[in-house]
UniProtKB/TrEMBL annotation:
Lineage: Eukaryota, Viridiplantae, Streptophyta, Embryophyta, Tracheophyta
SUPFAM superfamilies: GHMP Kinase, C-terminal domain, Ribosomal protein S5 domain 2-like, UDP-Glycosyltransferase/glycogen phosphorylase
Domain (GHMP kinase N-terminal) ranges: 612-700
Protein name: L-arabinokinase
Keyword ATP-binding: yes
GO biological process terms on file: carbohydrate metabolic process
């Protein structure tokens, strides 16, 4: 357990020893510099010298501190997160910038800093939160302490997922640097920071006020009865056009960070660059901005309601947002409404709030006392092993934003204590799926089922229970729980309970074998898993639809509106709601082009998830000519974990389209529905996936493998899983994304390889015919021409047999090829869903070889499933899975986590128990798009196998700190489930 202490006290200015502090400040925004200023101010008041190493402007410090004991040294050693604009972090650019700033010159940085620290005779190094400062202090033989609410290993760990293998070492290096620190002074609203051994919690660090509210307003010439909002986006307004009509009548807006030549409307007031914002915050009635430690802490301290807009790809935000909303001080604004000037409903809501933070605001003073005591020799650290020894996989630990629903956001998943009878957690993280059938049946009575069958599915019963609870929430109007999830409140106002609701269900899938060969036409074998997505849809006349306030304010006339609530938004830092006018999908009287739709959803990454749901509507409009005259309300609740390689996106798409089709009276076959959903992912979302995920989710059946040849989607039928065989999925903890660079580049490499093979076959055919020219054509064997004729027009790589590949093409395929070289020679790779980057080098040989051999392996796997039950059968099945796994790695789609899990299965198989005849696990492989996610495991269907799976869980946790989720069991696809049509029972309306 980490050591936590809340320390109170005051700095005394009469300390006899003058201490020298070296205080390093990250280059990410002004927020770090402003809180450092408060700590530094108290250290200087106590008579100490502070050297601040920073890239921030001098005025940030000198506005508050005028003392010769403050020495500013302008050096940037940590660039933080690179922002494309005020709300968008460029993840790849952040990693590249950090590499340029802190990695490439690392040796010279360490040498320079060690010499400098010795030159000033520093007593203590303090870092907020520059990693290399901790290592430099260690090299200089000086103690160091970090003061922060987040660490860069945690932030950058998510960015690494977008960058694939590139820059992964950055996270490890940062975590190791932090581990040299003595302890962490942790600020409220903190993120998980596993690199630190010991932790001391302090109150909020907040800048003091210089002037009272009335004085500030008087100087600005603003009367007390005028409502005042301060616009605070960290000095990065991004060129937004501010509109007079954005503010309610009688309101004024103070604008921080406006450019000198920016012309503002008459109800907007431009603030000077060097303005002291705490005084203005306290003089305002609410703040509009992005969440950061500085804005949140000062809003809470001065009890100012905060209207916030989400920032993309910054893991710090959900933890601060949770704190802000816990103390009833936050209102979330949709980015689209910020940019279009629809501010009124949010501002009017904000001024009705009564923020209730009563905690301490003297964190600067408390932190300074701890730093002073540490500098004179006091020991706050424990004697545990160094942080570096605890860091087996910083990426796994750092990335886990996922939490069990309902659990406090500040408790990381990997410190949870959910235990099974074997002492380990199994199954999904959905806490609602294991209720007794008697209890479940009790809440089905809340609704009358007009059509459909529950099929005994407990998760569907739980979903109906959640709907019933929304009824009660809406009827009672209760909102007394401080931690009541915003998405539940939004959902309570989503449906008209007097009208019918359609419910559809679609499961995720376990890629048993086939994987990334689907887009090359392979046979695949996929199993629908127990975890599924439920979608409730209501189509209703616009006049009867319950609209959220901001949607109502934006609405023109009585046009139909789409409103979506997605449960689980806290699990992945995305917006919980989405709404749009359905007419927005029209462009010149026709449904908009897919490219426009892709850009429409991508403009706000916190709501990009809506493309998976709302995109189904556009695809129905474009592909089937459907027109929607009624409004649509949708509730999405998925138990399929995101980013784990079990097709969470496909289950959302299939469930959404199934529900919308049923509500609109469309009769779409499961196969056709899967193909339409693939269009959603390829063209609206922009992920270059094959069709096996959607097909399994739509056409699969419980406890059977769906056999499909992806050319493009020929379902061969269902393959029974023999009763003595069982499949499991084990999550590695590393996030997987088919939209990531690795998956897309491997797909491009495979299509490049196909074009090279086709071109080579055409050349060989020409040579063959030219040699035969002038001879008796009867002597030319027609059979020898047919293979080359077929390969010249090869439509799918999987139609090339391994022996033909080895005999003709293996030697001519390059290991890799630059994009521009390929395009110059072959013009196009002929893949409709990916684009070649001319500047990028693509792996070709491994990417092309994989589907050719994978198709053969899957055919053999399918045949083995029907052979006689024996150890030889299971051993052969396992060997095919191992071969597939290493073929993934050859393509560049492996990962440390999945490799470790496969290794653990191999060790289990080859251990003493296996040699004695008790072994029950036979093989494993990475699944789906690779680069993380889940592995699939084949074994004997017995209790011993389950025990071994649980032991693998335990060993993986010991190695990485992460307890993986196990997927076991199966459930029917969307086609088998159909849909439910439900209506709230009359008795409830009368109560």
């Amino acid at each position: 357990m980490e050591k936590k202490m809340i320390i109170e006290g005051q700095i005394n200015g009469d300390h006899s020893n003058r201490l020298i502090f070296a205080y390093y400040v990250t280059g990410h925004g002004f927020g770090h510099a402003t809180r450092v200023t408060e700590v530094v101010r108290h250290l200087i008041l106590a008579g100490h010298d502070v050297h601040v190493v920073t890239g921030a402007p001098d005025f940030v410090f000198t506005t508050e501190i005028q003392s010769p004991r403050l020495i500013l040294r302008k050096v940037l050693l940590d660039c933080g997160a690179v922002q494309a604009d005020a709300l968008t972090v460029d993840r790849l650019a952040s990693l590249e910038k950090y590499s340029e700033t802190a990695v490439a010159p690392r040796d010279s940085i360490l040498k320079t800093e060690v010499e400098w620290l010795h030159s000033i005779k520093a007593d203590l190094v303090v870092s907020d939160v520059v990693p290399v400062a901790c290592r430099a202090a260690a090299d200089a033989g000086i103690r160091s302490v970090c003061v922060t609410n987040f660490s860069w290993d945690f932030i950058y760990a998510e960015y690494v997922m977008a960058a694939g293998y590139h820059h992964r070492s950055i996270v490890w290096q940062i975590a190791e640097d932090y581990s040299h620190c003595e302890f962490l002074i942790r600020l409220p609203g903190y993120c998980p920071m596993p690199a630190f051994r010991d932790v001391i919690d302090v109150p909020l660090v907040v800048r003091r006020l210089h002037k009272p509210r009335k004085e500030v307003r008087k100087e600005l010439g603003i009367a007390e009865d005028v409502k005042l909002v301060i616009l605070n986006f960290g000095g990065q307004p991004a060129g937004w056009k501010l509109k007079e009509e954005s503010l309610p009548s009688g309101w004024l807006c103070l604008v921080c960070g406006a450019s000198e030549n920016q012309v503002l409307p008459p109800n907007f007031i431009k603030l000077a660059k060097e303005v002291y914002t705490p005084d203005l915050i306290a003089a305002s009635d609410c703040m509009l901005g992005k969440i950061g430690y500085g804005t949140v802490s000062e809003a809470l301290a001065y009890k100012l309601p905060f209207v916030f807009v989400r920032r993309d790809y910054f893991n710090e935000e959900p933890f601060l947002r949770n704190m802000l909303e816990y103390f009833q001080g936050g209102v979330e604004m949709i980015r689209r409404d910020l940019l279009t000037g629809q501010w009124r409903p949010y501002l009017e809501r904000a001024v009705t709030l009564k923020p209730c933070y009563e905690g301490g605001c003297n964190g600067g003073e408390v932190a300074a006392r701890i730093l002073q005591d540490t500098a004179i020799g006091k020991n706050y650290a424990s004697d545990k092993l160094s942080g570096a020894r605890r860091l087996r996989d910083a990426i796994v630990l750092g990335y886990q934003l996922q939490r069990v629903p309902g659990r406090d956001i500040s408790i990381p998943e990997w410190y949870a204590n959910a235990e099974s009878e074997f002492g380990l957690r199994t199954g999904t993280q959905n806490a609602e799926t294991n209720q007794s059938s008697v209890f479940e049946n009790s809440y089905i009575q809340d609704f009358e089922i007009l059509h459909g069958d529950l099929l005994g599915l407990s998760d569907t019963m739980s979903f109906l229970k959640s709907l019933a609870e929304l009824n009660t929430l809406y009827d009672s109007g209760k909102n007394t729980e401080k931690r009541q999830m915003r998405e539940r409140m939004a959902a309570a106002n989503l449906f008209n309970w007097e009208e019918d609701i359609i419910v559809a269900r679609a499961p995720g899938r376990l890629d048993v074998v086939g994987g990334i060969a689907d887009y090359s036409g392979s046979l695949v074998l996929q199993m629908p898993i127990r975890e599924a997505c439920h979608v409730a849809v209501q189509m209703i006349h616009p006049s009867k639809q319950r609209l959220w306030k901001h949607a109502q304010a934006r609405r023109q006339g009585s046009s139909p509106v789409l409103q979506i609530v997605s449960y689980g938004s806290e699990l992945s830092n995305r917006g919980p709601t989405f709404d749009m006018d359905i007419s927005d999908f029209m462009d010149g009287g026709e449904p908009m082009a897919y490219e426009k739709a892709k850009a429409y959803f991508a403009q706000d990454p916190s709501q990009k998830w809506a493309a998976y749901v709302a995109g189904t509507i556009l695809v129905l409009m474009k592909e089937l000519g459907v027109r929607f005259e009624n409004s649509i309300s949708m509730l999405v609740s998925s138990a399929v974990p995101e980013g784990k390689g079990v097709s969470s996106s496909a289950s959302v798409e299939v469930a959404s389209m199934s529900a919308i089709a049923a509500a609109h009276g469309l009769d779409i076959s499961p196969r056709e529905l899967a193909l339409l959903c693939q269009k959603v992912e390829n063209h609206v979302v922009g992920a270059p996936c094959g069709v096996m995920d959607q097909m399994t989710s739509a056409c699969g059946e419980a406890n059977k493998l769906l056999a499909m040849v992806c050319q493009p989607a020929e379902v061969l039928g269902l393959v029974d899983i023999p009763s003595h065989i069982r499949f499991w999925g084990i999550d590695s903890g590393l996030r997987h994304s088919v939209g990531g660079a690795d998956y897309g580049s491997v797909r491009i490499g495979a299509f490049m390889g196909r074009e090279i093979i086709k071109s080579t076959a055409a050349d060989e055919l020409c040579k063959f015919l030219s040699v035969a020219n002038g001879t008796n054509t009867d002597e030319v064997e027609e059979d020898s021409l047919e293979p080359l004729e077929a390969e010249k027009s090869l439509d799918y790589l999987c139609n090339l047999s391994p022996h033909r590949y080895e005999s003709l093409y293996a030697k001519i395929l390059p290991e890799s090829m630059p994009g521009d070289t390929f395009l110059e020679k072959y013009a196009d790779h002929k893949d409709p869903v990916t684009i070649i980057d001319r500047k990028r080098n693509y792996g070709v040989k491994a990417a092309a070889k994989h589907p050719i051999y994978e198709n053969f392996r899957v055919k053999a796997f399918k045949a083995l499933l029907t052979s006689a039950a024996s150890d030889d059968q299971l051993t052969a099945l396992g060997e095919l899975m191992y071969q597939c796994h290493y073929s993934y790695s050859a393509c560049g789609l492996g990962s440390d986590g999945t490799d470790k899990l496969v290794q653990l299965v191999q060790e289990t198989e080859q251990g003493k128990s296996s040699k004695s005849g008790d072994g029950t696990l036979y093989g494993a492989k990475i699944t789906g798009g690779g680069s993380g996610g889940t592995i699939s495991v084949v074994g004997r269907n017995c209790l011993r196998s389950s025990q071994q799976i649980l032991r693998i869980q335990q060993r993986y946790k010991a190695a990485t700190g992460y307890l993986p989720v196990v997927f076991e069991g199966s459930s029917p696809g969307a086609g088998k489930f159909g849909h439910l049509r439900i209506r709230r029972r009359l008795s409830h309306k009368q109560e």
